[in-house]
Design brief:
With about 500 residues, the chain is an all-alpha fold. The chain has 2 domains: about 400 residues, MFS general substrate transporter like domains (Growth Hormone, Chain: A, Up-down Bundle); about 55 residues. Helix content is about 75%, strand content about 0%. The protein is built from 18 helices and no strands. Helix 6 runs antiparallel to helix 13 and helix 9 packs parallel to helix 17. The radius of gyration is 22 Å and the shape is globular.
Length: about 500
């Protein structure tokens, strides 16, 4: 194999690589925002399709469970079949599932379509990040590329609220799903002409037992957290789900040491910096997804905002994430160790959470909510970009897809667990508050509203603690040094070419 630096034109010298980044970023944005775009539309969809209050959560959970549970398999498929091919396949499948969901005539059809979206997103997301990793190998350019990618990963959920609010208020909830079709068409056309791939492996096979064990374990644990809200932490089913999840994940780890072609080669997660990045990402998104859930209901139910007003209320958070990622992290990563960005980022985000614990039933957005969202956004922007860049740096080309998938898995599993766990804490705290304070039935409406806000603030305290724990993990585990300014990033180990 010739050395690109010895005269051959390297892939990263492709003059159209930045247009390729646009296509990759467009696909990633579609995947990330779809985890939240339907949140604001959920009340309308619930009325339209006759969903029960107990079942409506599956519009969100079906997507995140399928996405998080199948990401490792999707990453390995990208390594074996080829990233560009997998990327295009994922886009087409995601668009078809979105169209099916938008045309849903029953709640079961919508739940199934959302699960299909998650499955295709699990194929699409790791191939997108892997293409980014293999396209930008120059250290300075990689910093800029990952700054944009990290901004989208961090702000995509908030953008989902804005887009969801606009589509729900001015069209209807179905367009929160239909909107993916034209985006996917543009991305597919761009991928064919702008993206390049490395040779795929022809001597490997998929680790099906590993996929079943890993996916089953993740689904069992997240389902346990989801059911704890209504059943309680000591319920037999909840405990059985947690036990089954732990057993399945332990069996998954055992199998990975013996499989001929493991789904997740353990050397990927044994490396200290990558392990620290994976754990930091999971902990950070536990807090972030909890914030989105509570703030959506707080703004709409407690303060009476419309869907569009709620979406726009998240705009400063989105802008702050983009600034933190592209203007601060991307500029500093070549000069300082990643943890010097990640630790302050998590401290800032935790500080924003603490500010939100002062919420009341009549808080002012400008003086009490906005400063917290800005701190949260800057903190997330400082953290996400170095996490993505550090976790995927210097990975063997044959493992780039599965490593990318593990970063995304950390994000989705953290978000799923965070939504279920913090929602359970908030609900139980609200119920306890209402029981203790409801002495006069004439004041029931006010006490219930106060109880709801009290539940949110208790859960947000927990989220702030998790954010600080993420900062501690980053500080202790991520010991990578800053790449030399303008130097070439560590070359991936080339795949064997038959």
């Amino acid at each position: 194999m010739s050395d690109a630096r010895a005269g051959e034109t390297p892939m990263d010298a492709d003059p159209r690589r930045w247009w390729g980044l646009v296509i990759i970023a467009l696909a990633q944005l579609m995947v990330v925002l779809d985890a939240t775009i339907v949140n604001i539309a959920l009340p309308s969809a619930q009325r339209d399709l006759g969903m029960s209050d107990a079942n409506r959560q599956w519009v969100i959970t079906a997507y995140t469970l399928a996405f998080g549970g199948l990401l490792l398999l999707g990453g390995r498929i990208a390594d074996l079949v080829g990233r560009k091919r997998t990327f295009i396949f994922g886009l087409i499948g995601f668009a078809a599932a979105s169209a099916l969901g938008g045309a849903a005539t029953s709640s079961g059809m919508l739940f199934g379509a959302r699960a299909l979206q998650g499955a295709f997103a699990a194929v699409l997301a790791p191939s997108a990040l892997s293409l980014l990793t293999t396209t930008f190998t120059d250290s300075k350019e990689r910093g800029k590329a990952f700054g944009i990618y990290g901004a989208l990963a961090g702000s995509g959920s908030a953008i989902g609220f804005i887009v969801g609010g606009l589509l729900t208020e001015y069209l209807n909830w179905r367009w929160c799903l239909f909107v993916n079709v034209p985006i996917a068409v543009v991305a597919v056309l761009g991928a064919f002409s702008l993206l390049h791939d490395r040779p795929r492996r022809t001597d490997a096979r998929l680790d099906v037992p590993g996929a079943l064990l890993g996916c089953g374990g993740l689904v069992a644990i997240v389902y346990g957290f989801s059911e704890a809200e209504s059943r309680g932490w000591t319920d037999g089913l909840v405990l059985a789900m947690f036990a089954a999840g732990v057993v399945l994940l332990a069996a998954f780890v055992w199998w990975q040491t013996r499989a001929r072609m493991p789904l997740l080669p353990l050397h990927v997660v044994k490396e200290r910096n990558r392990a620290g990045c994976f754990l930091t990402m999971a902990l950070a998104t536990i807090g972030m997804f909890g914030l989105f859930l509570f703030m959506t209901y707080y703004l709409q139910v407690v303060l009476g905002y419309s869907p569009v007003e709620t979406g726009l209320a998240f705009l400063p958070l989105t802008v702050a994430i983009i600034i933190g990622s592209t203007q601060i992290s991307a500029r500093l990563l070549n000069h300082v160790p990643p943890r010097l960005l990640m630790v302050p980022g998590m401290v800032l985000a935790a500080g924003g959470m603490v500010l939100l614990t002062r919420m009341t039933v009549d808080s002012s957005y400008a003086t009490e909510i906005l400063p917290a969202l800005l701190l949260m956004g800057l903190g997330m922007g400082l953290t996400f970009m170095p996490v993505f860049a550090t976790a995927t740096a210097g990975v063997a080309a044959r493992d780039s897809g599965v490593t990318s998938a593990t970063v995304n898995t950390s994000q989705q599993v953290g978000g799923s667990i965070g939504t279920a766990l913090l929602n359970t804490i908030a609900t139980s705290s609200s119920a306890a508050y209402i029981t203790a304070h409801l002495h006069n039935p004439a004041h029931k409406a006010l006490v219930v509203k106060e109880g709801v806000v009290h539940g949110y603030t208790v859960a947000i305290w927990w989220a702030a603690g998790v954010m600080l724990l993420a900062g501690l993990v980053a500080g202790l585990m991520v010991t990578a040094r800053a790449p030399k300014h303008g130097a070439r990033a560590e070359d991936p180990v080339p795949e064997p070419v038959p």
